Amino acid sequence: MTGRFITVEGTEGVGKSTNLAFIEGFLRSRAIDVITTREPGGTPLAEELRELLLAKREEPVDACAELLMVFAARAQHLNQLVAPALARGQWVLCDRFTDATYAYQGAGRGLSLETISKLEFLVQGSLQPDITVWLDIDVRLGLERARARADLDRFEEEDVSFFERVRAGYRARAEEAPARFCRINAGQPLARVQADIQRALEAFL
Ligand code: Z5A
Question: What is the domain range of residue 108?
């Protein structure tokens, strides 16, 4: 029996970290054996690539180089961690996955969705998440939350229009895969966000 693959997505400040912990706790309360991981990252090599991707630097980062680093990290993560766990019957809860690439590198940076789709097929074949929890929030509200929290990484320094495009990218992905995407209004108070997530997961189970 293979495990289930759950991903959590959204723009800055949506509360992914907060709600990943909530989802993990909910699944464990149902006696589900789950591992929580993230992208980019999840293995030592993929975490090194994450550091390279997020670091602020004087040299401009070419969008295509960024895209290839994201997929290099994903190939390593999928083959070393995600696929073997699913094959063992474990559930995998992942902070971001390929929808983030369509949203950030596609809609945000303006790279070709067709190119992203080709790389997606090369790296993951037909593997897709079973359910994607999309935490959706007004971009300005999310940025206020994110910027109150900590030092900004290279992505968090982008302007509002970049994140508006990223949000529109997620919306387009949700429209293409309505059965997989579950949109949660992340602008609500946390208790209501988590009640909505729990309802969605109960329906999924
Ligand atoms: N990236 C990419 O470009 N392409 C790809 O394919 C992939 C990734 C996979 C790192 O991601 C970057 O990688 C990302 C895109 C790029 N861009 N950035 N930055 P990340 O997921 O690690 O980074 P993040 O977006 O900053 O995630 P995060 O750390 O999980 O942040 P968060 O979503 O903002 O979550 P949070 O820390 O739980 O919440 C933020 C604050 O809001 C915090 O103080 C909470 O207490 C508060 N909060 C949360 N929920 C609420 C509610 N409901 N009300 C009020 N306050 C709340």
Answer: 5-204
pLDDT digits (tens, 9 = 90+) for 127-185: 999 999 999 999 999 999 888 877 778 888 888 999 999 999 999 999 999 999 999 99
For residues 67 and 51, what is the distance between their CA atoms, to the nearest angstrom? 14
Across residues 70-99, what is the average pLDDT? Answer: 98
- Cα separation, 84 vs 129, whole angstroms: 15
CA-to-CA distance for 137 and 145, rounded, in angstroms?
11
Q: What is the pLDDT of residues 99-117, one digit of tens each?
A: 999 999 999 999 999 999 9
Determine contact, residues 24/93, Cβ cutoff 8 Å: yes
Closest CA to ligand 1's atom 45? 15
Pocket of ligand 1 contains residue 100 by CB under 6 Å: yes
- Which atom in ligand 1 lies closest to the alpha carbon of residue 19? 38
What six digits make up the tokens of 63? 């969008």
**How many percent of the chain have pLDDT more than 90?**
91
The CATH number for 65's domain is: 3.40.50.300
Q: Which residue's CA is the closest to the ligand 1 atom numbered 26?
A: 12
Q: Is the CB of 91 under 6 A from ligand 1?
A: no
Residue 101 and residue 104: Cα distance in Å, rounded?
Answer: 5
> Domain tally for the chain?
1
